[in-house]
Amino acid sequence: MTLIFFFIASQWWLGKHPGGFGPLFAVAWSLGLLRTILIARLPERSERTGARIRIREAVALAREPRMRRYLIGVAWSTGVRVATLPFVIVMLRREIGFSDAQIVTTTVAMFAGGLVSLYGWGHLVDRFGAAPIFRITNLGMAALVLALVGVSGAGSGTLLGLVGFFFLHSLLASGFGVADTHVLFNLTPSHAPSRALVLGAVAVGMIAGLTPALAGGILDASLHSSAAPLGVYRAFFMVMAAAQALAFLPLRGFTRKADSEDWR
Questions:
Q1: How many CB atoms lie within 10 A of CB 83?
Q2: How far is Cα 148 from Cα 136, in angstroms, rounded to an integer?
Q3: CA–centroid distance for 151 within its chain
Q4: Helix count (H) and strand count (E) of the chain?
Q5: Which span out of 2-16, 109-123, 147-161, 170-184 was modeled with the highest average pLDDT?
Q6: DSSP annotation of 150
Q7: CA angle 21, 26, 29 (to 5 degrees)
């Protein structure tokens, strides 16, 4: 809710002051600093000894095949997703001609989709298991990204369509996140849960941090070629849609039956 209110306020601000991102960045930076201060005194510690968790203890859990498949699948899906969405916004701004206020409108929709769907996804994961949710959400996100190939102008219909895109993409990403959390908690050793949670957060976070930079470098090089910029973005979205569609493959084994199996 805080993010939605922030982006609504940002939309109003940018409507009054086009290009005035400085104050918005200052507010966001200040809130990030505050968050860092608040969590600085909350280090992860071992439940058995109270000592700080060592990296090698957490990484050792990745030797277990199910944990390894989980990490590969979640990092794959998350990495593709976070490497795609920023460049949708770049295309809308540079090639389609969206205003700053229009861009913020689509961003609000991105957070609203997750907000309204989390409770429902929880029920679906509990009833059907994580595997079908992984499949549906990845294929759904892939279809949405592929649909971006048809974007060509900045009319009111395009804005409405992009709001729908970000809303539905967020809704599906939230479902993937609920299934992800469900599996991670099932894989977590009851005697030392912090190691598994740290491994999941750090491993996926590292991939999610690297893939946008890699995608940006490839996209930037392609845009400096003789190809038409809009054509480059379309090819990029087709490749990313294919990668997103395949991301559920390592996660197929996390069915309801598998939930009852205890490897710990």
A1: 24
A2: 19
A3: 22
A4: 10, 0
A5: 170-184
A6: G
A7: 120
Query: 110 exposed, middle or buried (CB, 10 Å; 0-12, 13-18, 19+)?
Result: buried
> Does position 18 have pLDDT exceeding 70, yes or no?
no
Cβ-based burial of 142 (10 A; exposed 0-12, middle 13-18, buried ≥19): buried
Which range is least confidently modeled, 4-13, 143-152, 164-173? 4-13
Range(s) of the domain holding residue 73: 55-259
* 202 assigned to some structural domain: yes
Residue 236 and residue 222 in contact, taking contact as beta carbons nearer than 8 Å: yes
Residues 144 and 171 reside in one and the same domain:
yes
159, 161, 167, 168 alpha-carbon torsion, rounded to 10°: -160
Residue in the block written with tokens 């944990």:
67
Shared domain for 35 and 141, answered yes or no, is no
Q: Distance of CA 83 to CAs 48, 132, 219, 259, Å?
A: 38, 24, 11, 30
Q: Is residue 50 part of a domain?
A: no
